Amino acid sequence: MNVEIATSLAKALNQQVEVTEMATLLEKPKHADVGDLALPCFKLAKILGKSPQTIAAEIEKNLKCDMIQSVTIVGGYVNLFFNQSLITQQVLKKIRKEQRLYGTNLTNKGNVVFDFSSPNIAKPFSMGHLRSTVIGNALANLAEKNGYHAIRINHLGDWGTQFGKLIVAYKLWGQQQTIAAAPIEELLKIYVKFHEEAEQDTSLIEQARAAFKALEDKDEEALALWHWFREVSLDEFKALYQLLGIHFDAYDGEAFYNDKMQTVVDELQDKGLLTLSDGAYVVELENMPPCIIKKTDGATLYATRDLAAALYRIKHYHPEKIFYIVGHEQTLHFQQLFSVLEKMGYDWAQNLRHVAFGMILKDGKKMSTRKGKIVLLHDVLTEAIETAKHNIEMKNPQLQNKEEVAKQVGVGAVIFNDLKNDRLHDIDFSIEQMLHFEGETGPYIQYTYARIHSILAKADVQFDETFYPLGEQAWQVILLLDQFPNVVASAYEQADPSLVAKFALQLARHFNKYYANNKILVNDAMQNSRVTLCQCVAIVLQESLALLGISAPENM
């Protein structure tokens, strides 16, 4: 709608201003009684060399747009009041027709790769990994809504010196039967014990180095243990992903690129980009530290592996973009990675994007696996589901499918609690806040959807295509529904799912305000419009939740 209005405004000024420029100037007034949309003319004054008041008067005189009912001029502002009847008709008709496809870009824009979640093998899936997992999944969903084919990759932490430590720990203290019964829990215990013991006995560190060297040299026993650690960990991770409703197209972890790194080193050497510095081969970069590629002892580093991964993904998936959903503490690493690829002459390096995010803190500090100071995601999800189940028993004991609904609500609460936050902010872990189901929460939106479903189940309406304005509270709901496609596009462009979460909260709040003051099922001339409004809100709420990776139960 804004583009259409911007086009009319540009015509009112004889096309002296580009439509795209005009569209960026439009803003929503703080108070609804001032207007539905406002155009401040101050920037236009600089472009056109006229006073804002003169420009505003010119627009008022020449504006022709069916969507605009009236115009008022206040200072250098043009305040626009929409044609509520026409816009109500257009918005409700469009959503009724398109259903869940409303806001979807149906063009095929190609592949986009998402590298996210990436937990470490043989370590439990902690709350610290939740952010990458749910932000990455939501962005992949948003990419699909915007016309791309999303390829979800889980770049598992399945290689590195920690496996030397784990092999030593297993040989010293591991019991095969105990570990088989509770793999990750027991592997964590011996991993933590290794670090505790190594503080007293430094020879353990040397043993771990030797064990990892044996693994790199494909020692049969070391490889067998590594495969076993990876397999049991992945089984547990997949059970969690299933609970979260998340799937991956590939689990190509760090080990997958072991045989692909030397090619990268050779290419860097051939292009004259490698220099020897302080016992390591590096690529010198402008305005940042050099990127270390290989130590003189032959050990390759994360950067080499990620270079190999980028080259493999470009060749294998032909993506338009690659998104790396990794914490903000890795910002320098990705700046170096992208710069090295540019120096190698790859233009597509500009299509790589690091989507940084803040940490989940416990008592103001980062969670640490080494010291055992972690909160397990499985435990949090279990508690959330139990809390949801208790609420159902208290408020609606006759509900069908209690177990399934409790799972949808509990898991939804945990996911939404993360995604409603600006991704760059750190979040202080609070189980109480996570399990709070009132206010700015996922269950509040789910409950609004279920309430509408209950209304629609009772509605006996012969639908027609004529919809009438339903008053100021309903009008605010219509304006929000109209904004949904823009929110979907902006959330993807800004790589920020919180825009969808905040939108869904706002829509639920405005609908509930309307519902509290209006009877829906009254047999009069407006019932068709009221019920259709409910239908459209339900469609958009359900789709908003789906984009965030959250289910919408029909009954709660």
Explain what you see.
The chain has 21 helices and 13 strands. It is of the alpha/beta class and 556 residues long. Strands 5-4-9-10 form a four-stranded parallel sheet, sandwiched between helices. Strands 1-3-2 form a three-stranded antiparallel sheet. α19 runs antiparallel to α20. The chain is globular, with a radius of gyration of 28 Å. The relative contact order is 0.11. The mean pLDDT is 93.
Keywords:
21 helices; four-stranded parallel sheet; globular; three-stranded antiparallel sheet; 54% helix; alpha/beta; 556 residues
What share of residues are in beta strands? 5-15%
Count of helix runs: 21
**Cα shape:** globular
Tell me the Rg in angstroms: 28 Å
Strand count, sense and closure of the main sheet? 4 strands, parallel
Topology, number of strands? 13
Structural class: alpha/beta
Q: Between the first and last Cα atoms, what is the distance in angstroms?
A: 35 Å
Mean pLDDT: 93
Q: Helix fraction?
A: 40-55%
Uncertain spans, ≥5 residues at pLDDT below 50?
none
Give the spatial strand order of the biggest sheet: 5-4-9-10
Which secondary structure elements does this structure contain, and how are they paired or packed?
Elements (H helix, E strand, L loop, with lengths): L1 H11 L6 H7 L11 E4 L1 H7 L3 H11 L5 E7 L2 E6 L1 H15 L12 E5 L14 H16 L3 E5 L8 H12 L2 H6 L1 H16 L4 H14 L3 H25 L16 H10 L3 E4 L2 E4 L7 E5 L6 H16 L1 E7 L5 H13 L8 E4 L4 E3 L2 E2 L10 H19 L6 H18 L7 E2 L2 H4 L7 H17 L13 H22 L4 H20 L9 H22 L8
Helix pairs in contact: 1-2, 5-19, 6-19, 7-9, 7-10, 10-11, 12-13, 15-16, 18-20, 18-21, 19-20, 19-21, 20-21
